[in-house]
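Re: the request from the purification team.
They wanted to know what the chain is likely to look like in 3D before they choose a buffer screen. I agreed to run a prediction and write the result into the notebook, where they can find it.
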Amino acid sequence: MFTDRFRGEGRSPRGARARPTGRVAVVALLVAVATASFAFAAAPARSDSVVRGSAQASADTFSLTMKAANANIGLSYGRSFARYQDRTGSAEARALDLGALPALFGGPQCDGSTPLLPAAALPPVTSADSTLPGAEQSRRTQVFQPGIAGEPNGGPVGFQDATATPLPSSEARTESVPADVFLVALIGGRTETSASLRDGVREARAVVTADELRVLGGLFTLRQPRWEAVARSGAEESTSSTFTFTSATVLGQERPAGQAFADLRGFSAELGRLLAPFGVTLRLPTTQVVEGGVRITPMGFVVQEPPIGTDVLVPFLGRIDPLVQALRQELVAQDCKNDVVLTVVDILLGVLGGSGSIEILAGGVEAVTDDTDFAAPPPLPEPTEPPAEVAPETTIATDPSIDTFDPGFDVGSFDTVPPLDLGVGELGLGDVDLASTEVAEQVRAERAEEAAPLPSTIGSRFEEGSAGRAGVAVGTVALLGALGLSLGDRLVGRRSRRVIP
């Protein structure tokens, strides 16, 4: 009614336009709801709001390795690896990893006998790939040592399992039997690794646990040791790494965890000084920051670059090398299979001589993530601008394919003309070649025919002498310069006709 009252006057009351009618309000509400619904439907899920990238985690229970140059001989217990990349998860678990041993002992022997490590006796690998059906199901497997004397299996070494899903995610787990080499022992070792992308968070997690960790036959005993590394990126950014144990004994005496680790650190320093001539060190778990994640190093003994080896062993072996080679040839002649064993001995001697290392390690984990966009196409190469056209300079390069007149000296540059020997010959041309001399003679003859006799008065003012000969030489040089300019113009013109389409 209020609006109708002012309709006849052609104007609205103050504030009337600020009040939407009921119909306008309904339309505005419908538009707002439709816009919100469209925006909600178009918004991607949180897991896709960040680059999928990748994540990977790895863990080892126990390893005994000999490294020299490019050779890596040894074995590892409880090795697990989990990874995802973009939309694919994968995992691998090995209760026993023989490393390069199958390459050394798995092939046919020199006498045709059965390999020491036949393929049928090698420990299996449990793996999972989310692109394959059934990857999310458990495939727990018991693993045995390789058989000896033709037996398919030896004693048990543990269990292994691996799973993967297209989430993507993956997990790998191992359980190991006690591993004890006196210097380091790990009792009841277990590994767990996982990698996943959930709610926009990339996560890699690696854990090693055990019942006991012993050093030097129980001189130090750590109960319930645990290595753990976690890396997250994307919607959440964080890394964490810990090495812990619940309790410990030192020389059989109970110690709190903190005090026991301090005692172990002091013992490691003293042992390093005592065994320095042998290159032996006791390494304790430490945290290391790596690109995209974190790592916790294992505990164990390492023999590397022993001074006694480089100062004593290497010179001694050098003196008895002829005897060693003769003994080696004799052993191979008795049984050709000894050659492989002698190869391992050579690697060991190389390590003791300072060219490698021996590692006895327990535990160790690593977790890293990466924000690489594997779904995006590779970037196109940047366009390269065509080279700018350069105006021709006065310097002209001689092209042997062009049939040009050769005056006998370099006409490639008018800025620097090579000096001429003007001390010999009637025209002062010196060693100028025949072509130049003939041209000069022809030009001189033509000008002599066209020139009128000079008046005697002028001729009497200049007497023949060294100055006159110098003037003739200078004139000749000027003449040759003019010829050079003419030939240069001709050369430029012909090159332009050949190069420019």
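For the purification team: Confidence is low (pLDDT under 50) at residues 1-47, 392-436, 451-474, 494-501.
Please add any questions underneath this entry.
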